[in-house]
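Hi support team,

I've been running sequence recovery on a batch of backbones for a student project. Most finish fine, but this one hangs at about 90% for roughly twenty minutes before it completes. I'm not sure whether the input is malformed or the queue is just slow. I've pasted the structure tokens below so you can try to reproduce it. Let me know if you need the job ID as well.

Thanks,
M.K.
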């Protein structure tokens, strides 16, 4: 590993520190974006489009001039963002249409993930598939009317003219549509966590999450079996971390084969850079051969941690080599002088995707000269028929390295040693090509993930250089990207002509991922400093982001700019969710500190996503992993999944369901060995109870129920419950009680058996009203005599 790491240091000397901005040539007159720090916005700083950055100024202008807003969201390493920038936003005719009829806003989704999430959701709920660049038309109040992604220039002009026509002729209809899309967006973002689902947290939820993925048995990864696993494949490290963890449990051993196959196939495929190290963003097809070529810090950070953790269980030399090469790439190309980590390398060079990374057979022959070396190199990397754009080769291993070594009558070590000088020759040539653009902004959350990756690698491989790199980056972030009152800032970047500085409010993921990195550093070094810093950041996140009433964390802070929707993220995609990572962080902190407030709020964070685990378990492997850990703890301490006195917040007086229900018991005289009784419940206006039967499996355990006791002992009673009203819901209809409810019953008894008591258990929930979300209170048992 040391030899290979040194090779990457040699490569670094061949590479320029920064690649040229793709907009350097033929600059036009600067617009407002020229003063921004975002490299993506600066790529549009010389468009003829009169761009505004996201802010009140743009919306005030739209209101004043009675114009719609055109919102364009992208990121610096996005291929189709560059294409639309060249074709449309640099086009004078398109710019004229935009400038005269719209107020135009440009957003870097990596700077403002909250804005991106809200409007991408709006696009999805309107029936369109998502992607970048995201192109949306908004009212001056910011409500989404409709949108799309990439538009070719002529189609884009047609769309703009159609929008102008609709605004002139059907303005009221457009605004009504915006209100409707906004309502759907709010519902989509808040539906699964609006109420705390009153369902038990069980092993079945973990099992359902584990079994929700369909594995590609030939090439690894997940996909649709009916479609022969065709289509894109993302690494989704959160999924594989969950499955790796599950594979270590008794009875799940078969999972290990799927995890191992996927890790091997990704490392052999073209998604992995076999010359320079590191992973591209995702594969465009089943075999991991043809990627989208951008290299994102967050992918490489998560995959370093995943391969390191996999090595702990399965010490495969491939995993160790991938980690060393990837961290070599990070050190060479993605590390700032201060020790922080840059965001991304673009996919394009010379406006062509992947040009920097691909080869022709003739190029390889010319560079290596020696025919035997050329034949050997082509055999190792499967350079036969072109696999990219019909003339280029993306280097990949066509089969496991051990098999290739046997074919060449070499050991794996001998094969790798023989490859080194050949790879070095190609790297020298590659370094002279036009470099992909390097986005040098430093993002707190992604740096937290890279700290976690470095620290995990340092711990597993006992490599001090890795741990030191993690510590240096952590020191930089804690010193430079934290406010005086202990709050994380999102970015460290420089506007043109200015020194870099921390800027932007932190989001939940900035806290969650950085805390994760600090906890990994504490595992690797045992230095109490990192644990103390993790606790301080966790306390800050709980103060500014947590929902004390329902549990979980909001993506934005309580004092952040208010958009028309606010989400609690639980979905683990290319990036894990902030809530999934925070749930695990809280449980780790509890184990390290024995402070129950962390465990109990970890439970409440998992609990608020119970509905997600029931309805779409594969979307939240991070939450499922935290639940599994809670259930392990609960085997010895049941309060782990039903805290008696949650330490995270003072309970409000009368916070239980009893505060919303008045109950009265009326007993009839004992007659013929029986006694009849009636219970009258009056539910406060705007609230309801779950009926019995409720008519929905999810709410069965929350039905209104009666238990009868005579002389302190439970006795059988014949109870008649009213039918209840039907409440319609996207997850299925169920029945409720509202207003006045009468429940009757008969119990066998003698006159002198003792006092009759009726215990009524209720769950009171409020109905959403005037845009306010409903809430379910803790269950109460009313003891009536």
């Amino acid at each position: 590993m040391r030899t290979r790491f040194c090779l990457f240091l040699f490569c670094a000397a061949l590479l320029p520190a920064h690649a040229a901005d793709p907009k350097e040539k033929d600059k036009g007159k600067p617009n407002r974006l020229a003063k921004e720090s975002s490299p993506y916005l600066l790529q549009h700083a010389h468009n003829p489009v009169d761009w505004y950055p996201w802010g009140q100024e743009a919306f005030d202008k739209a209101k004043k001039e009675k114009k719609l807003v055109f919102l364009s969201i992208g990121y610096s390493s996005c291929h189709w963002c560059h294409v639309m920038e060249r074709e449309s936003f640099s086009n004078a005719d398109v710019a004229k249409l935009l400038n005269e009829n719209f107020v135009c806003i440009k957003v870097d989704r990596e700077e403002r993930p909250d804005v991106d999430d809200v409007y991408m959701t709006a696009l999805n709920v309107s029936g369109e598939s998502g992607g970048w660049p995201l192109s949306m038309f908004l009212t001056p109040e910011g409500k989404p009317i409709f949108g799309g992604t990439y538009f070719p220039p002529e189609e884009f002009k047609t769309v703009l003219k159609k929008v102008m026509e609709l605004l002139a002729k059907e303005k009221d209809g457009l605004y009504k549509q915006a209100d409707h899309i906004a309502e759907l967006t709010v519902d989509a973002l808040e539906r699964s966590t609006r109420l705390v689902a009153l369902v038990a947290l069980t092993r079945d939820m973990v099992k359902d999450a584990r079994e929700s993925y369909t594995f590609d048995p030939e090439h690894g990864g997940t996909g649709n079996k009916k479609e022969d696993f065709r289509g894109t494949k993302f690494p989704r490290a959160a999924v594989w971390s969950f499955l790796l963890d599950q594979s270590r449990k008794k009875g799940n051993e078969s999972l290990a084969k799927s995890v191992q196959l996927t890790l091997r196939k990704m490392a052999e495929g073209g998604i992995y850079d076999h010359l320079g190290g590191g992973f591209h963003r995702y594969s465009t097809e089943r075999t991991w051969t043809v990627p989208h070529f951008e290299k994102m810090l967050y992918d490489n950070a998560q995959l370093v941690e995943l391969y390191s953790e996999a090595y702990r269980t399965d010490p495969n030399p491939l995993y160790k080599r991938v980690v060393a090469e990837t961290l070599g790439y990070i050190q060479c190309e993605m590390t700032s002088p201060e020790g922080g980590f840059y965001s991304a390398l673009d996919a394009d060079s010379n406006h062509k995707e992947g040009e920097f990374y691909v080869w022709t057979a003739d190029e390889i022959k010319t560079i290596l000269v020696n025919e035997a070396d050329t034949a050997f190199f082509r055999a190792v990397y499967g350079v036969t028929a072109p696999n990219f754009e019909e003339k280029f080769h993306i280097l990949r291993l066509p089969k496991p390295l051990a098999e290739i070594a046997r074919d060449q009558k070499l050991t794996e070590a001998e094969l790798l040693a023989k490859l080194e000088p050949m790879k070095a020759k190609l790297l020298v040539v590659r370094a002279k090509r036009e470099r992909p653009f390097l986005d040098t902004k430093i993002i707190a959350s992604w740096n937290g993930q890279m700290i976690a990756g470095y620290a995990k690698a340092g711990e597993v491989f006992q490599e001090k250089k890795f741990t030191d790199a993690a510590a240096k980056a952590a020191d930089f972030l804690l010193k430079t990207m934290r406010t005086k009152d202990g709050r994380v800032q999102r970015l460290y970047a420089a506007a043109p002509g200015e020194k870099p500085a921390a800027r932007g409010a932190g989001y939940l993921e900035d806290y969650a991922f950085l805390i994760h990195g600090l906890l990994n550093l504490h595992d690797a070094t045992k230095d109490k400093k990192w644990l103390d810093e993790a606790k301080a950041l966790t306390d800050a996140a709980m103060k500014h982001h947590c929902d004390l009433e329902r549990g979980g964390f909001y993506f934005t802070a309580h004092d952040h700019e208010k958009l028309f929707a606010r989400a609690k993220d639980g979905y683990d995609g290319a990036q894990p969710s902030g809530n999934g990572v925070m749930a695990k962080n809280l449980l780790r902190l509890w184990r390290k500190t024995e402070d129950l407030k962390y465990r109990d709020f970890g439970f409440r964070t998992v609990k608020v996503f119970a509905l997600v685990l029931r309805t779409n378990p594969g979307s939240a492997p991070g939450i499922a992993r935290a639940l599994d850990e809670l259930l392990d703890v609960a085997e010895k301490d049941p309060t782990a999944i039903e805290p008696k006195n949650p330490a995270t917040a003072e309970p409000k007086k009368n916070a239980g369901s009893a505060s919303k229900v008045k109950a009265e018991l009326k007993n009839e005289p004992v007659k013929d060995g029986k006694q009849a009784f009636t219970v009258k419940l009056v539910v406060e206006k705007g609230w309801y109870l779950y009926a019995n039967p409720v008519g929905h499996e999810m709410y069965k355990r929350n039905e209104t129920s009666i238990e009868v006791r005579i002389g302190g002992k439970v006795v059988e009673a014949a109870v008649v419950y009213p039918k209840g009203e039907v409440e319609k819901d996207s997850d299925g209809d169920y029945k409720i009680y509202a207003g006045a409810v009468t429940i009757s019953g008969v119990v066998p008894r003698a006159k002198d058996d003792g006092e009759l008591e009726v215990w009524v258990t209720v769950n009171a929930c409020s109905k959403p009203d005037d845009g306010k979300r409903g809430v379910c209170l803790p269950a109460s048992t009313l003891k009536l005599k």
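--
Follow-up from support: It reproduced on our side and the slowdown came from queue contention, not your input. DSSP finds 25 helices and 27 strands in the chain. No action needed from you.
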